[in-house]
Amino acid sequence: MAYLIGVDLGTSGTKTVLFDELGKVIASHTVEYPMYQPKNGYAEQNPADWREAAFTTIRAVMQKSGVSRNDVKAIGLSGQMHGLVMLDKNNQIIRNAIIWCDQRTAQECVEMTNKIGAERMIQITANPAMTGFTASKILWVRNHEPENYEKCRHILLPKDYVRFCLTGEFATEVSDASGMQLLDIPKRQWSDEVLEKLEIDKSLLAKVYESPEVTGTLTAEAAEKTGLLPNTLVVGGAGDNAAAAVGTGVVRDGKAFTTIGTSGVVFAHTSEITIDPKGRVHTFCCAVPDCWHVMGVTQGAGLSLKWFRDNFCNAEKETADMMHVDPYYLMDKAALQSPIGANRLLYLPYLMGERTPHLDPDARGVFFGLSAMHTKRDMLRAVMEGVTYSLRDCMEVLKEMGVSVNDMMACGGGGSSPVWRQMLADLYTCPVKTVDSKEGPALGVAILAAVGAGIYSSVPEACDAIIHTANTQEPIAENIPAYEKYYQLYKNIYPALKEQFKALSIL
């Protein structure tokens, strides 16, 4: 039996999972690390923490499993996207990494737009200039820390720094590189035009591979630290969402997944590139060679339900503790006691501004229609429905772009809720499924590693062998028109409040 390792470098910690070649989990281990916020809106991490977490977790799964290192054929890497790691001429870390949720680069985004042009930026990078992406972070360091920029000889993404520590190679792959805003998305290579206009030296960037390609092998030093054999293969891997797509089998046209985590994501696979000229959704290269994905993001998905739980559901939390169940289980039951439409109560989930389809940092959460008749269960259902409406907004943009979806997977914490999955099925008017594995990105990059090692001939073939459906929620015919009338009203609320959100932001 061959074995594969998936390393998932997240924001709160790194999780490494050892799988057999059929995707069965053999061992898993997680190491957490801190995030630093030196100023309001800043978010940084120390890349050395990622390196040590990767070494520790790989070594731990090997020790827990008892699997021979001779049988581990390859490693795949997944990770948080958009982070900026800068190394000097001696390959030493220059400063803490500026990570994906950092918001300091608004002025640099203006600079990028002025130098490249808003329309041209979307044509090449498939996105408007965004604070979360890597290019604006590079410009920020150049503008505010010129001494650090002068020292820089290598720019890497978070998982690609771990790759360098494992293999000594400076390499990235198309899905993660897509989120830097330096890649020509249609051509799947660095954009000379963007680099020249931003005056960024191309030699700073890593070589770009397709996600299942072998990017290097373990050095003797890394092998000693991880308990693996020297020369164990390391494949390109993928950014977190692209890896999750592979881990849920979303690798063919017509397939998509919805993640309800802190944020919400609607992610659809497409073999033909399509870019939204309005920049409402992200188009990235996906982990299947010569294919792309289109991704809509709503900022406050699971966050909205967590916010409601933490502020209004102490009784449910206490009862759940006595029953030894998750509070969300009881919240699901409560939501079912309110009808579709939550007794004419709607919720806008804009607690953190919004990305798709409004791209408005000033948007804020709203309960619309609140009256003295409403109960906590109505508010709870309205929150879940409002998040689902925002995800439907993402789907509407995909349809407008000609991306069709007939097979939807659900994942993330919210995806485990049958109530939420039913709402998705009714509003998407298509079946919503879950897979039997909960490992998502780690499984996805282990599948890519299996392809790189030659165990499977292609990513779709590997997914066919490894990914299995667990549950399916079919749309309920009578629910569809009931939700539709509330969704149409929901769509009209944001435009009516847009200018008021802006006014509120400057009070």
Q: Class by helix and strand content?
A: alpha/beta
The assigned CATH architecture of the largest domain is: 2-Layer Sandwich
Please give the largest β-sheet.
7 strands, mixed
Number of helices: 19
Q: Give the radius of gyration.
A: 22 Å
Which class of the largest domain in CATH terms?
Alpha Beta
Shape: globular
The stretches of 5 or more residues where confidence is low (pLDDT under 50) are none
Query: Might you state the CATH topology name of the largest domain?
Result: Nucleotidyltransferase, domain 5
- Helix share bin: 40-55%
What's the N-to-C terminus distance?
A: 64 Å
Would you mind describing this structure in some detail?
The protein is an alpha/beta fold and 507 residues long. The protein has 3 domains: 240 residues, ATPase, nucleotide binding domain (Nucleotidyltransferase, domain 5, 2-Layer Sandwich); 129 residues, Nucleotidyltransferase, domain 5, CATH 3.30.420; 112 residues, ATPase, nucleotide binding domain (Nucleotidyltransferase, domain 5, 2-Layer Sandwich), CATH 3.30.420. It has 19 helices and 24 strands. The strands form 7 sheets. Strands 1, 2, 3, 5, 13, 14 and 15 form a 7-stranded mixed beta sheet that branches. It starts with a strand and ends with a helix.
Concise summary:
Helix content is 41%, strand content 21%.
Record keyword descriptors for this entry.
alpha/beta, Nucleotidyltransferase, domain 5, 7-stranded mixed beta sheet, 19 helices, 24 strands
